[in-house]
Amino acid sequence: MKQLTAILLAVALVAAFTFVSGCTGTDSGDVTHLRIGYQPSTHQTAHTTAMDKGWWQEDLAPFGITQITDYNFPTGAPEMQTMLAGDLDIAYVGSAPFIAAVSTGLDAKIVAAVQTQGSDLVLRNEIPYSTPADLVGKTIATFPPGTIQDTILRTWLEENGVDPASVNIKAMDPGAATTALSAGQVDGVFLPHPSPSVIAAEGTGRTVVQSGEMMKDHACCVLVASGSLIREHPEIVEQVVRTHIKATEYNIEHPDEAAAIYSKKTGQNVETVKASFRDWDGTWTADPNVITTSVVEYTNLQYELGYINKPLTQDDLFDLSFYEKARA
């Protein structure tokens, strides 16, 4: 397992370097260019709203930021490899891949929550399902080892008496997994929204279990700031958190507009995005205090799965001071 994980991380690292080659760093001096990583998931709609409305640029301009660039990643593993390389300042990412990256030396902290829950196990319509045991021998596509979805799926199977090795769990990004399901190449997928709603709209599958049923109130995506930005420009990090809070609260109050903004950013059908907001079991929240226990628990789960060498502590992963200051 550790050898497989090392190979996957090496592949992700090559992809990450290719993806953001030419980015400037934040090692010292004034910061004028802020680089934000995100994934095309309705989990991270706070970023798309802040970007579309110009809030990142407007709110950070007084701190000397003249350019905001965002980078789209298919999953958290390559995103965190890019941050490890020093090519991202801020990241919207799943807490599990962040943990894996910290365990290998990433200098960064969670400064705010993004949302909880919000992923579904979806099976092709003709595949019967009543209990987790029905997945034995089936092929399920999900995010790569060390991600939220992979960690939850394997843990849930074990807790229900199913050896994860008896299920063919294939690492795929959401686009490839959705296509594979519709082509009959996999029996099911375990993906974050809006992918379950996309599949439902296409009529190729149906949700059988939501992630909150697998692990109640589990943490999912988080807002991460690089260690160098935290130490050298804490005022920028505090404003990033303030803007993130503003966007999160705006989306909660204006879900239809948030859906339209997300649709414009990603090209996904706006009605499908609205369905995702309606049908998922997720909750947008910026408060990191809501997720600290769950995130720390992930470190125990990832240690048991062999993804990290030792469990991590809250202090290893979080800096709550920026949220506290932003809310003061």
Describe the structure.
With 328 residues, this protein is α/β, with parallel strands linked by helices. The chain contains 16 helices and twelve strands. It folds into two domains: 2-116 and 219-327, 3-Layer(aba) Sandwich (D-Maltodextrin-Binding Protein, domain 2); 120-214, Periplasmic binding protein-like II (D-Maltodextrin-Binding Protein, domain 2, 3-Layer(aba) Sandwich), CATH 3.40.190.10. It has a five-stranded mixed β-sheet, sandwiched between helices. Strands 8-7-9-6-10 form a five-stranded mixed β-sheet, sandwiched between helices. Strand 7 (139-142), helix 6 (148-159) and strand 8 form a beta-alpha-beta unit. Helix 2 crosses helix 12, helix 8 crosses helix 13 and helix 11 packs across helix 12. The longest helix has 20 residues, at 234-253.
Number of helical stretches of at least 4 residues: 16
Question: Numbering strands along the chain, what is their spatial order in the largest sheet?
Answer: 2-1-3-11-4
Would you identify the CATH architecture of the largest domain? Answer: 3-Layer(aba) Sandwich
The CATH class designation of the largest domain is: Alpha Beta
How many β-strand stretches?
12
What would the average pLDDT be, to the nearest integer?
91
Hey, roughly how much beta strand do the residues contain?
15-25%
Structural class: alpha/beta
How would you name the CATH homologous superfamily of the largest domain?
A: Periplasmic binding protein-like II
The best one-word shape is globular
Radius of gyration from the alpha-carbon trace, in angstroms: 19 Å
CATH T-level topology of the largest domain: D-Maltodextrin-Binding Protein, domain 2
The portion of residues assigned to helices is 40-55%
